[in-house]
Design goal:
CATH architecture of the largest domain: Orthogonal Bundle
Strand content: under 5%
Distance between the termini: 43 Å
Radius of gyration: 19 Å
Helix content: over 70%
CATH superfamily of the largest domain: Tetracycline Repressor, domain 2
Order of helices and strands: HHHHHHHHH
Number of strands: 0
CATH class of the largest domain: Mainly Alpha
Number of domains: 2
């Protein structure tokens, strides 16, 4: 668990709430989570949770944003590393894929996807986060083209979009624990697909 559990005034930190909400959603899904149950896990009141989030949809959205902000920082670090473009692409793929069934971050995403059709704020947030992954992958591919590591004719936006769609599909199979789908297999398939979608220069 990151950071202090409580502030100096004794209140639970918002980060700690999001950590615990993420864990609870991964364990039983958003439908079974109640504000009172989350408050009990944290040793605080339901009113304190409601003060920060107001609704389960808002809690889900903030948990996804919090999780993705940390990943965005990791992507920035990855893009700045002094390694080959092929190595960066492999690391990007590894960062994207879930750790295994019920991966907390990916469980949040599945819950979010299930609610975006009925909620414009959730849909807009999803698009904003997706755009961040797309931009960073485009930057990675464009730099590889510039360095002569990837084919000069590469359709950078198109291939980035295709690869992300493939990773979404593989990730969903892994996080749902579908038979024959685990992280190792997903990584192998993603690497093979990336080699076809992003040919060397």
């Amino acid at each position: 668990m990151a950071g202090a559990t409580r502030r100096r005034d004794g209140r639970i930190t918002q980060e700690r709430m999001l950590e615990e909400a993420m864990a609870a959603i991964a364990e039983g899904g958003l439908a079974t989570l109640t504000m009172s149950a989350l408050a009990e896990r944290l040793g605080t009141s339901g009113g304190h949770i409601l003060y920060y989030f107001g609704s389960k949809d808002r809690l889900l959205l903030e948990a996804v944003r919090w999780s993705e902000e940390r990943l965005a920082a990791e992507r920035t670090g990855l893009l700045g590393r002094r390694v080959t473009a092929h190595r960066k692409l492999a690391l990007f793929v590894e960062l994207y894929l879930p750790s295994g069934p019920r991966d907390p971050r990916w469980t949040l995403w599945i819950e979010l996807w299930a609610r975006t059709a009925a909620s414009e704020p959730l849909r807009a947030a999803q698009q904003e986060i997706d755009d961040g992954w797309q931009r960073d992958l485009e930057r990675l591919l464009a730099k590889g083209v510039e360095q002569g590591r990837f084919a000069a004719s590469l359709d950078v936006p198109g291939r980035a979009s295709e690869l992300l769609a493939l990773l979404d599909g593989l990730s969903t199979r892994v996080v749902l624990g579908q038979r024959g789908a685990d992280r190792a297999e997903a990584l192998e398939r993603a690497r093979s697909a990336a080699a076809l979608l992003v040919p060397p220069g």
